[in-house]
Amino acid sequence: MDQLTAHLQMRLLEKGGAVPYELLLLADPSRELIDSYIFDSTCYIAYLDQTAVGVYVLQEQAHIAEIKNIAVPEQYQGKGIGKYLLHHACRMAKEKGWSRIRIGTGNSSVGQLYLYQQQGFEMTAIVKDFFTRHYPDPIYENGIACKHMVLLEKIL
Fold it and tell me: 122: left (phi > 0), else alpha (psi -120 to 50), else beta?
């Protein structure tokens, strides 16, 4: 743990609490899709002092923990917060008795694919045309059209 992440405080979003859409929309540009999973999931928000600097959403999917959303604002990226959130999600999933955790990301999400594999996640499947079917507007990252979802899993 580095200097910054040593000062992070993780807070569980209480049922009925204000959904941190400004953070969640960084990773999922559809509020409608966020609403489809946020209310039957567990959401943790990372704070540095009183500033929200990260978020993730964990949901049970067929006996596997799935990270449905994970986001860090651009000004806080590259400081270990994303890695910290992944470790926290894995720990929470393990405490709940799950033996595997899954995460999905776009084929164009080069940085995320690097981070997830670096943290022990392995590619298990590709959902062809996921983003073109579920989002009305095209998504581009790193100069690449985001079309397919890459699923990765880690044994806990």
Answer: beta
What is the model's pLDDT at position 2? 66
The residue ranking higher by pLDDT, 122 or 136, is: 122
Whole-prediction pTM value? 0.92
Q: Helix (H, G, I), strand (E, B), or coil: what is residue 58?
A: strand
Residue 119 sits at φ, ψ, to 5 deg, of -95, 15
| Average of per-residue pLDDT values in the chain | 95
Report domain extents, the chain.
5-155
Strand partners, 71: 55
* DSSP-derived secondary structure letter, 141: E
CATH T-level topology, domain 5-155: Aminopeptidase (3.40.630)
| Per-residue pLDDT tens over the stretch 33-54 | 999 999 999 999 999 999 999 9
First-residue to last-residue Cα distance in the chain: 20
8's CB contacts (< 8 A; 6+ apart) are: 46, 47, 48, 53, 54, 81, 84
**Is 18:50 a contact under the CB 8 Å cutoff?**
no
- How far apart (Å, rounded) are the C-alpha atoms in residues 59 and 152? 15
Backbone angles phi, psi at 101, to 5 degrees: -130, 140
Phi, psi of 51 (to 5 degrees): -100, 125
